[in-house]
Design goal:
Layout: H1 10-18, H2 26-35, H3 46-65, H4 76-97, E1 100-103, E2 110-113, E3 119-122, E4 127-130, E5 138-149, E6 157-160, E7 164-168, E8 172-178, E9 185-192, E10 195-199, E11 205-208, E12 212-217, E13 222-226, E14 240-246, H5 247-258, E15 261-264, E16 273-278, H6 284-294, E17 297-302, E18 305-310
Parallel strand pairs: 5-6, 15-18
Antiparallel strand pairs: 1-4, 2-3, 3-5, 4-5, 5-8, 6-7, 7-10, 8-9, 9-12, 10-11, 12-13, 14-16, 17-18
Helix pairs in contact: 2-3
Length: about 300
Amino acid sequence: MKRIDDTYNRAGLKKLLQEEGSVDDSDLLELWDSLEGHTETAETDSDREDEILATLLEHAKRTQDNRPPLRLVASPVFRYGMVAAIAFIAVAAWFFLVPVTQTSAPGSTLALVLPDGSNVALNSGSSISYNRFFTGGRDVELQGEGYFDVLPGSKQFTVATFNARVQVLGTTFNVRSWETSIDPGTEVTLLSGKVQLIGESNGESVTMQPGDQVVVAEGNALTARQVDDSGVAVWRDGNLFYSDELLGVVLEDVQRRFGVGIQLSVPEIAMRRINVSFHSPADAEVIVRTICGAYSLNYRKVASGFEIFESD
C-alpha cells in the first residue's frame, strides 16, 4: 500500500490538462476523482493507485513533449554586436586581400619600398599592383616601366606584365611593358643577379645573365641581345636615352613624361629609328625641337601639345 500526496488536487490536474491549450480530459479527471478525498493516512488498493498515477504521469509527459520548442530571441544589443563583428571581418578581409595599386603621375617618377623591403622606381604613367603584406608570395603586376632592386628571400619574386613573367630571388633589373604602345611588348634588362623570363602564351622561357636584354614581343616571340646597361633606367634621374629606337616609342615616353599630346601628320614617321639622349630636359618642346632638327622634320604647337610633320 502507498500513501497519496495531498498536494495533488483536481484544480492542479485540470490546470495540467489544459496547459499549452490542451482540452479538459474528463476521463483523467474521473481517475483523479477516484483518488481525491483520500487523506495522507488513507490507503487505497496499491495496484489501482499505481495504474491511475501511471496514466496521469504518461499524459503529463505527452503534454510536456508537445510543447513548442523554446525560441531564443536575440536582444538588439546582441544583433548590433553581430553586425559589427561581421562588418569588422569583411573590412579586415578587404584590407588583407585587396591588392594595393600605386601609380606614377605623368611628368614624375615614383619610388616605392615593397612589403619585403625590395625597392622599385616607376617611370611616368606606370603603375604597380601587389598584396600589401605579400600574402602567399612576392608577386607584383606592372603596367609601364619599373626599375627593381629585389632583396634576396626564401620566396621567389615575380613581376607579371600583360604578356610575360619575370622570376627572381634577388637581383636588379628594369622592366618596360606598354600594352597599348605602337610597339607593344615586354622588355627586360638585367643589371645584376639572374632572372628567368617566361612568355605567357607559349611558356617559352630564357634564363638571363647581367647585360642581357630580352624582349617578349607580340605573339610572345623572345629575342635576346647584349646591351650596355649604362643607359638603362637613366629615367630615374630625369634623363632619357634611346639607341636604335622607334621615333613613335620615344614620343610616347615624352607624352607620358610631360603630360602633353603629340600628333604625327604622317603616321609612317613613327616607324623611323633614331638614336637620341637628353639630360634632364626642361620641357617637351626641347625634345620635339631637337628631334625635328636632327631628322629633317618640322613641328608646330596645337591646343593639345604639338604636331610633327615632314619638311617640304
